[in-house]
Amino acid sequence: xxxxxxxxxxxxxxxxxxxxxxxxxxxxxxxxxxxxxxxxxxxxxxxxxxxxxxxxxxxxxxxxxxxxxxxxxxxxxxxxxxxxxxxxxxxxxxxxxxxxxxxxxxxxxxxxxxxxxxxxxxxxxxxxxxxxxxxxxxxxxxxxxxxxxxxxxxxxxxxxxxxxxxxxxxxxxxxxxxxxxxxxxxxxxxxxxxxxxxxxxxxxxxxxxxxxxxxx
Length: 216
What we know:
Layout: H1 2-28, H2 36-55, H3 64-91, H4 95-117, H5 127-138, H6 141-149, H7 154-185, H8 189-215
């Protein structure tokens, strides 16, 4: 369980950096007077803090299905930004690029699905819950593509990705806190080793699938 949680943390850590880098890249192409770069950091932090407050509203950190919900939400917001990239490719006439992006992001998202399921390993969620989480994580890509085809301005794409990065950061903090709590409750060298190994495998997996997107 610690291995899979740490793997999820690695997946989300890479995804957070990827979303933030893409947001700043879009911000660089926005009008200078909008100060989009600074807004990216502000929106990311406000989103993360806001979701942390909502997640801990009952006084306890989210776990199980609740944590899976926040992971799916963060990935969904990130996928909305990916949808913008796909739509923008089609809008500029780069049909082949758009098709390859769809294939690359699909492979990339398969690994993200592992992260959604990880917190529910000790539960027995229903098929309805799995379906809902899958739709929450994947469906935002569709409106993202539709908006991207309409040639969304760079600052809006940057802010959308910043929201996604903030949501992912909130989940990464919660998973990290859960791992620390488990480590304190039962300090064990094997558990620590599994956690480190899972984190490394998570980053390596996301890096590998990200390369497929770039090669495409």
